[in-house]
Design goal:
globular, about 475 residues, alpha/beta
Length: about 475
C-alpha cells in the first residue's frame, strides 16, 4: 500500500502517531483497540490491531474526523491489517442511535501539536531532569481542547485549523488567555503570543463558545492587567467562563519564590478584585462567569462560595469548585447515608481497624471533615510534597517517595486508602512507582492498603467493598 503523507509538523517528531506497517512504510490512522461483540464494527469484521486509515473520503487523522465523518447510519472505511499487510474497504451500518462498537488508541493519530511558546510559568519546565520522558511533552493541540477539555493557547493554529474549528463547530474550546495586553502576553508566553489573540477573536466572531483560563503570576498579569483581562471577558459573552488559577512552582527553578496560594493578603486582594465582575455577571446573565480556583479562598481564609456560584462547575478539573463539591457531598452523605456510615464504623471497630486516608496538604482540612468526624473517626495523612517543593501541595501530585517517607513504618491495624489521582492510566506515580509495588510495600508494613477515589461517596463505597472482602475471605487479613 502507499503510506499517507506525514504532515509537515510531524516530520521527525517522536510523538507522531503513524505506525510502521512492517515493511518500512508508515501507516497513518487509528489503531483499533476493542470491538464490541454484535456491534456494526464486529459485523464488518474489524478486529483489534487493525488500523482504520480512511473514514468516508477523509484520512483518519484524529477523532474529530471520525466523529464528523461517521455521523450517519452508514460509514465507509479503509482498513489496514498489519497481520498480512493488506488494505481493504468495508461499510458499517447501524440502527438509529446505535454505537459503532469500535474503540481507538487515543484521540490523535497524526501527531500531537506541541507547544511553541516559552511560557514563564510552564510547569513542565520546572520538573526535575530525571523523570520519564512523557511528562515533558507540552501539548497545545486544539483537537484535545475540544475532545478532552485540555487548555490550549491557540498560538500554533494555521488559518486552515481555524477554518476547521469553525466549520466543524468544535465548541466549546478551552483557551488559555493569561493576559490581553500584547506586551504582557509576550512577556508571559513568548514571541508567538499575538497569534493566540488573533485566533481567539476569529473563533469568538464565529460563535464558538470559549472556556478561558488565566494563570495568575505575581507582578506580571495581576493588578491592572487582570482588570483589563476581566473587562475583555465582560465585553465578549462568547467567553462563558474564565478560570483564574494561581501560579504553581517547584524548587527546580529560580524565577519564582511566591504565589497567591502562599500569600494570604495577595489572595484576599484577588478575591476582592474579581468580586465586582462576578456580581455584575450574575445580575446580567444569572451566571458568575469569573471563577477563582479553590486555592484563592483557602489561602485568603474566606469561605468558599455556595454551589450556585460555580455555574454547574464548567472548570471543575481546573481545581475550581472541588472544595465546594466535597463539602456538599459530605453533608449529603451524612444526611442520607448516616446508617451506612454507622455500619462501616462498627465493622472497623469490630475488626480493631483504624481508617487512614491520604491527601495533599491543600485538601487536608476538607477531607478531614468527612474522614475524621463521627462516626468514622479516621485520620487524614496529609503528605508534604518534598519531591517537587515550591508551593506544590495538591493531592494529584503526591509522589510515592514522599508518601513512603512520611507514612508510619508500622501500619498494623490500619485500613489505608491512597487517592487514585496519584496514579496515571498505567498505574504509575509521577516518580515512577507502580501502584501494585506501592501497595505491596505498604502491605509489608502491616496496612490493608487500597487505591480509590477519596470523594465521600466513592470512599464509602470502597470501605464497604474492602470490609466485605475481608468478611468473605478472612484468610486474606
Amino acid at each position: 500500500m502507499t503510506a499517507p503523507t506525514v504532515p509537515p509538523y510531524a516530520q521527525g517528531r517522536a510523538d507522531y502517531g503513524g505506525r510502521p506497517d512492517g515493511t518500512g512504510q508508515t501507516v497513518l490512522g487509528g489503531r483499533v483497540t476493542a470491538v464490541r461483540p454484535e456491534s456494526p464494527a464486529w459485523d464488518a469484521g474489524l478486529e483489534p490491531g487493525m488500523i482504520v486509515t480512511r473514514v468516508g473520503d477523509e484520512p483518519l487523522s484524529d477523532m474529530v474526523t471520525w466523529l464528523w465523518e461517521s455521523d450517519g447510519d452508514t460509514v465507509d472505511l479503509e482498513v489496514f491489517d498489519p497481520t498480512d499487510g493488506t488494505t481493504a474497504t468495508c461499510t458499517l451500518e447501524r440502527l438509529p442511535g446505535e454505537d459503532w462498537g469500535v474503540d481507538f488508541d487515543g484521540a490523535i493519530f497524526d501527531g500531537m501539536r506541541t507547544c511553541v511558546n516559552g511560557c514563564i510559568f510552564c510547569f513542565m519546565t520546572m520538573l526535575p531532569a530525571h523523570m520519564r520522558g512523557s511528562l515533558y511533552i507540552r501539548d497545545d493541540d486544539y483537537r484535545l481542547s475540544f475532545l478532552q477539555g485540555n487548555f490550549v493557547t491557540l498560538t500554533n493554529l494555521s488559518d486552515n485549523d481555524i477554518e476547521r474549528i469553525i466549520s466543524c463547530q468544535l465548541s466549546p474550546m478551552n483557551v488559555s488567555i493569561h493576559a490581553v495586553s500584547s506586551d504582557v502576553r509576550r512577556r508571559l508566553m513568548g514571541k508567538n503570543a499575538a497569534r493566540g489573540m488573533e485566533a481567539l477573536e476569529a473563533l469568538i466572531a464565529a460563535g464558538i463558545e470559549i472556556h478561558a483560563q488565566v494563570v495568575l503570576c505575581p507582578g506580571v498579569n495581576d493588578g491592572a492587567e487582570l482588570d483589563r483581562t476581566l473587562a475583555y471577558v465582560e465585553a465578549h459573552p462568547q467567553i462563558t467562563s474564565l478560570g483564574i488559577v494561581p501560579l504553581g512552582y517547584t524548587k527546580f527553578q529560580k524565577r519564582f519564590d511566591r504565589s497567591f496560594s502562599d500569600d494570604p493578603a495577595a489572595a484576599r486582594a484577588v478575591v476582592e478584585q474579581v468580586r465586582p465582575f462576578q456580581e455584575r455577571a450574575r445580575a446580567r446573565t444569572g451566571r458568575t462567569v469569573y471563577q477563582l480556583s479553590d486555592e484563592f479562598y483557602l489561602a485568603a481564609g474566606v469561605p468558599v462560595p455556595g454551589e450556585a456560584w460555580y455555574d454547574g462547575y464548567p472548570q471543575f478539573y481546573d481545581g475550581i469548585g472541588m472544595i465546594r463539591s466535597y463539602l456538599d457531598d459530605t453533608a449529603t452523605l451524612r444526611r442520607d447515608g448516616a446508617g451506612r456510615l454507622e455500619v462501616v464504623a462498627a465493622a472497623l471497630a469490630a475488626e480493631d481497624l483504624s481508617l487512614m486516608v491520604v491527601s495533599g496538604e491543600a485538601a487536608r482540612e476538607t477531607v478531614a471533615g468527612f474522614v475524621e468526624g463521627a462516626p468514622l473517626g479516621g485520620h487524614v495523612a496529609a503528605i508534604e510534597n518534598r519531591y517537587f517543593g515550591g508551593n506544590v501541595n495538591v493531592t494529584g501530585l503526591i509522589c510515592a517517595e514522599d508518601l513512603l517517607e512520611q507514612l508510619p513504618h508500622d501500619l498494623v491495624g490500619v485500613m489505608l486508602f491512597l487517592p487514585e489521582v496519584m496514579f496515571n492510566a498505567d498505574g504509575l506515580t509521577l516518580d515512577g512507582y507502580h501502584r501494585e509495588d506501592l501497595l505491596d510495600t505498604l502491605t509489608r508494613r502491616g496496612a490493608r492498603a487500597f487505591v480509590a477515589s477519596t470523594l465521600p461517596a466513592d470512599l464509602l463505597d470502597a470501605l464497604e467493598a474492602a470490609l466485605a472482602r475481608d468478611s468473605e475471605h478472612p484468610a486474606a487479613r
